[in-house]
């Protein structure tokens, strides 16, 4: 096993060292793991795994300080650097996924494609939706992508260096991280009971999409559940003004309750699909537990702020103002205000009130790769020959 530590002198803060120590303690037990090769990855999701799709599709520039920590420039990721999907691709020794809708920079889709778009929901988008690329649309985009790719290769266009072959589609990994916006968005217009009652309908839509991908030959599926929505500064600011609405960690209880029930039913659906498709590998990944543990034990992993946003406006305790997003400059109460990034994002779990920092994403990824939070667990039979670079 190789772990390539590329540490710049100015990054050697105590927080960074804590991260390294925590990660090393996680990685070394995997020294005897076998290398598990997927030729390609096809990802579906929302902003948690969007590598630039919404920015390209809707034609807007997600400005700095997004991307400042790793890419040194905005990439369309709602983060100061890499997302969970980026770390997972790195662990599988695959390149970062190009977003489906980004036509610039000569994107290469040979090793996979990312259909995830920020703001997307599992349920079909409405006129009021932030993002038109709901899960059903993403699956439809994949179907077109596959048909177009195979068609071009069959025509002898010599594009097999840039597009997946049939074999790659069959042996590739299909990843899902979506559902957060269906729940979080509903709280603005529905009661908790109404939201809980809507979960089966949401999951019917998800099941329909997964079945379409199975019918297209997909056999390897990773289904990430949703995280503790109540621990996001955005939701605490809006729904947690009454202390009685918060739990012992300072998170909004109702949001986490909805996330837990959603995950319970998503887990049941995953088991059902595994029973239906005996020739498929369906892995359910418990992101909720990983993120909850991180928020609850943040200082153990080198973080100083579990909920407060690094990039925002308003200062402690949340540094979040819904009127002005990370990096934006607006006139508030007659004064020009800019939502700036903090000095050291490695001290923060939350980046902009909604999304995680690169440091937090790195921790979550390392936990996923232990296999302990998966059903079925894979720690004994794979996962990857780790080559994480940080």
From TrEMBL:
The keyword Cell membrane does not apply. The chain crosses the membrane at residues 12-31. Pfam families: Lipase_GDSL (PF00657). Signal peptide: none annotated. Keywords: Glycoprotein, Hydrolase, Membrane, Signal, Transmembrane, Transmembrane helix. The keyword Chloroplast does not apply. InterPro entries: GDSL, SGNH_hydro_sf, SGNH_plant_lipase-like. One of its GO terms (molecular function) is hydrolase activity, acting on ester bonds. Belongs to the 'GDSL' lipolytic enzyme family. This is GDSL esterase/lipase. It comes from Quillaja saponaria. The lineage of its organism: Eukaryota, Viridiplantae, Streptophyta, Embryophyta, Tracheophyta.
């Amino acid at each position: 096993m190789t772990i390539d530590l590329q540490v710049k002198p100015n990054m050697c803060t105590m927080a960074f060292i804590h991260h390294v120590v925590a990660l090393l303690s996680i990685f070394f037990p995997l020294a005897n793991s076998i290398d598990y090769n997927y030729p390609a990855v096809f990802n579906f999701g929302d902003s948690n795994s969007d590598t630039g799709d919404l920015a390209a599709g809707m034609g807007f520039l997600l400005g700095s300080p997004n991307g400042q920590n790793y890419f040194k420039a905005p990439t369309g990721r709602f983060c100061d650097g890499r997302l969970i999907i980026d770390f997972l691709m790195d662990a599988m020794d695959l390149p970062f996924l190009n977003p489906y809708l980004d036509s610039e920079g000569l994107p290469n889709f040979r090793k996979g494609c990312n259909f995830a778009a920020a703001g997307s929901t599992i349920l079909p988008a409405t006129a009021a939706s932030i993002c038109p690329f709901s899960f059903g649309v993403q699956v439809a985009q994949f179907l077109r992508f596959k048909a177009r790719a195979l068609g071009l290769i069959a025509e002898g266009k010599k594009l097999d260096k840039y597009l997946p072959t049939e074999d790659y589609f069959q042996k590739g990994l299909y990843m899902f991280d979506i559902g957060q916006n269906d729940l979080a968005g509903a709280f603005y217009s529905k009661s908790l009971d109404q939201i809980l009652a809507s979960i089966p309908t949401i999951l019917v839509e998800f099941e329909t999409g997964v079945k379409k991908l199975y019918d297209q030959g997909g056999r390897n599926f990773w289904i990430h559940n949703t995280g503790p929505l109540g621990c996001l500064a955005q939701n605490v600011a809006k729904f947690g003004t009454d202390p009685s609405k918060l739990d012992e960690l300072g998170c909004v209880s109702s949001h986490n309750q909805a996330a837990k029930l959603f995950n319970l039913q998503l887990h049941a659906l995953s088991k059902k699909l595994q029973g239906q498709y005996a020739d498929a590998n369906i892995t359910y990944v418990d992101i909720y537990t990983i993120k909850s543990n991180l928020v609850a034990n943040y200082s153990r992993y080198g973080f100083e702020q579990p909920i407060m946003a690094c990039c925002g406006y308003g200062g402690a305790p949340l540094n979040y103002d819904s009127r002005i997003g990370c990096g934006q400059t607006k006139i508030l109460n007659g004064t020009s205000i800019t939502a700036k990034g903090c000095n050291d994002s490695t001290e923060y779990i939350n980046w902009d009130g909604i999304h995680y920092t690169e440091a937090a994403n790195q921790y979550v990824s390392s936990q996923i790769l232990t296999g302990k939070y998966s059903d079925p667990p894979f720690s004994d039979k794979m996962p990857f020959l780790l080559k994480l670079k940080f």
